Amino acid sequence: MRGIDIAKKLNISTSALRHYESWGLVPKVEREKNGYRIYTVEHEAYFQCIRALLPGFGMELIKELMPLIIRGNKTEALWLVNQAQVKLHTEKETVQKTAEVLELNELMEIPRFSDRNYFTIGDVAREANVSTSAIRHWEKEGLITPDRHKDSGFRIYNASDIRRVLIIRTVQKAAYSLNIVREVLADLEKNNIAQAKEITLKSLAYNDYALEEQVRGIAALQNLLDVVSKLH
């Protein structure tokens, strides 16, 4: 099977096929005496799977996944995919929280926040699904200004800080620069939530798109596993 034929089917260049080969994402490709690559049905299934997985899972996961399948570690590969799906679901929930808080003037209106005066950085990180280092970075950038405990000096956050962090991470996660984040926060200070709401709704829509693409990718992955099972 010629590489150019596979490339045409997938609407990509033959150089892309060679990149995937050089990255170890497909089994070893034999060559004819004249040096031309000999692609098999199995190779085609790998290439199809890579392209199908890319929109919903990204190349970083694919680079972990394909070598596992090549080595016969099917179960480990499937759990890796499952982990990515859980991550997407968690992201969806976090963005939905942002959409929820944008409709409120104060987070204290949400029952789980109503009985607490302050929160630790760990509390905020868990609520917003971000790392504590990200929160510290945003503090250095002047995007949030938590108070300090009088005795211990530790950062203490209130419900408004959590609302702010949720908005920051959602806007930045949508691939916007910190300058855009600052614009959104400035609008919020004026009780203008239009831009933040638009970005949040786009993020929710993207999560729905990613879910559909993941399902398509998983179908291609199952096809690859079936092909590999028949040949080995």
Automatic annotation (TrEMBL):
The HTH merR-type domain, residue ranges: 1-68, 118-187
Keyword Transcription regulation: yes
Keyword Phosphoprotein: no
InterPro entries in the record: DNA-bd_dom_put_sf, MerR-type_HTH_dom, MerR_fam
Keyword terms, alphabetized: DNA-binding, Repressor, Transcription, Transcription regulation
Gene3D superfamilies, sorted: 1.10.1660.10
SUPFAM superfamilies cross-referenced by the UniProt entry: Putative DNA-binding domain (SSF46955)
Protein name: MerR family transcriptional regulator
Organism whose genome encodes this protein: Paenibacillus shunpengii
